[in-house]
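Hallway conversation turned thread

IA: we were arguing at lunch whether anyone had actually written out Threonine aldolase end to end. Turns out nobody had. So, for the record, here is the sequence (351 residues) and right after it the structure tokens. Reply here if something looks off.
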Amino acid sequence: MTSSIHDSSVRGFASDNYSGVHPEVLAALAAANGGHQVSYGEDEYTAELGRVIASHFGDTATIFPVFNGTGANVTALQSLLPRWGAVICANSAHINVDENGAPERVGGMKLLSVPTPDGKLTPELIDLEAWGWGDEHRAQPLAVSLTQSTELGTLYTLEELRAITEHSHLLGMRVHMDGARLSNAAAALGVGLGEMTTGTGIDILSLGGTKNGIMFGEGIVTLTDGPADSMKYLRKMNMQLASKMRFISAQLLALYGTDLWLTSAAHANAMAARLSTAVQATDGVELVYPTESNGVFASLPNAVADALRERFRFYDWDRAAGQVRWMCSFDTTEADVDSFVAALIEELAAR
């Protein structure tokens, strides 16, 4: 019987979620499928994952595997807040733009978003909403959430992260990091995972995997005292507790138990750099933000974008401004990039 499934050999640039599963992760899943293991996280794979995570993030780090990124963000933030708590974030943050109100509706928290020029918070921007403590009429700002790398593909330096955590802690707020693309950030900065998180004062982390080659699942990593105490209850309450947790843990082990997280992320970054360089040399298209990880943000006429999209899948970022986003993945090849650039030049020339 001939398959009707779309030809997966044509890779687009819409999202690193579009990529397949890394062969090493598939092998790890298959290996985990033999025999019985205790359910709900009392299995050997989850225990080993805990040891691996401690080796990256320090002895105080504890990982809680969950099903997806939104669940990780909401549950992590809940662990930092009482019912009257609020979270300061960038207005471009995934929790503010792309999670359908889950932090507010499911998590029961208020988001206090601030505009940023590049997707990055600063102590000064945080102060725009860091006020009103003790006022019963205002949701209390008790946490800050930042994304590394940001939704605009930009990166916080270690110094910038330390400035944010020190400022937030002095104000009595704890700091969450959405690390959906943490591996890309670490690869780009040339630093370790722990150096960028535990070492800069982050309290809790949503640890990404699906954007870097695993099939499903993410992790919440508690880095300081406090959040871990409530996590086991919050995870269950939020429907993020997997009965067969070994299959999430086995994937994260394949990624973080070796240097696969680093090599895959570094490759995606390199492909984005290749695409960015080509774009900068092409008349009629300009970069909107610097390419610092695995995303390229560019401006070009909507008609060109629409024509190009008939051949390669990608998203508008801001259609009114003529801005698009192109993402590279662990399986993006140089040939993919070169074919895309050739098609882009062809479409530009046709108009």
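OS: looked through it. Residues 282 and 345 are 7 Å apart (CA to CA).
IA: good, adding that to the notes. The domain at 23-256 is CATH 3.40.640.10 (Aspartate Aminotransferase; domain 2).
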